[in-house]
Amino acid sequence: MKNLRMKEIIIALLLTSFLIACGGGNDNNNTPPTPAVSIAITPASATAFTDKDSAPFSVAISGSTNTGYTVTASPATGAGCPAGAQSGSTFRCKPTAAGTYTITATASADSTKTSSPVTLIVTDPVAPSSTANCAGVFGTGSKKATIAVASNFRLPAYELITAYFQASSYGDDTEVTVCGDSTATLITEINGGNPRDYVMLFVADESARQEFGSEAFTYARGVPVLAAMKAVIPDASGLITSIPALSGDVVTITEGGAELGDKYQINIAAAAISVADPEAAPYGKAAELILKDMMDIDVNVGDKAELPSWIFSDGNASNGLWNNIDRTWWAFNGNPGGDSIVAGKDTSGVKSGFIAKSQICGDIAPKEASSPYVYVEFMYPEYIRNQTAVVIDSGDPVASSLDEYIKEAMANGEWATFLDNNCYLPVD
Fold first, then answer.
1. CA 196 → CA 189, 192, 392, distances in Å?
2. Taking the complete model, does pTM exceed 0.90, yes or no?
3. Looking at residue 402, which CATH number applies to its domain?
């Protein structure tokens, strides 16, 4: 009997051990621990401009299904970060004062959990360019937008916006201002805080794609010309010398590189020539290439005293040239269009200039049978300007609809007609 009792006790102990090993004990012993809440902000550092939304900060919360948080900035005022409870995965700040701010986020699920600090560096935007021509204002309405265009596209842009408004589904309750200036000036403004709030950008080279990425597209291919008023230089031979001599008021030159200089020379007796700054204006860059190939000179010397006497060297750029090709044009056409900068210079000796064909397109054949201009156009591929555009503010309804209008016109063939009417080459 005693042995039987001992066996029962041993069996009971073994069974208990088996049940505990198989989870038959207290369930609380196997409850996983509550995960710790954590919160993080990225990127670690960002820059912004006063009175402009910053790029978004991303917030990641783990350890809780509660994704709420609050944002704290130090100093407490000026950063413009959102107040109160937040729930989105991103937030933006809209600073009101320049300075350096430290920003953290605290998890709503656990107020003891705060992110590592990130830094927001805020500067004031650059001042708007004093040389921009913003006289083109179209339409009226509560939706207001300003587009930035390289000077060669200023007049074609007027035609574009007029057509945009005439299209049945565009332009309602809308006012669009067109500002023209050099490509470099416009990009500097946009990258410096965009003080004019440009919503779309049209430049005269590839820089829209280089600066703002793959969303940019080619909208035109522009032709550089050396032009003069026919009343001053009646024949192309007064612009370019060659054997045999050029004749007529319109000449097309297809040669480039060393071959250009072998066959043609600038007629320096008919100078001075107006040229745009190659660092600011892509058509100034085209002029630099042409003059280097044709005359073996460098106009981008930085010191106007080193420019040849037959190039006008009292422009408003620091190197003695003009800061955009509107002024390059006005310097020889006798019509500065109210521009005080050109009007304040003695341009009486300027007889011609390197500009864009699009600028004089409204005054030459086929639009005008009796053109007041004589010009030589340069069609060598390296001289042609590949012009790009991009939407700067994708959230702006005018920018989005204008971009859509242009893309539709490209698809249905209307854009090719527009380019031809404004003396551009077709885009590929």
1. 8, 11, 12
2. no
3. 3.40.190.10
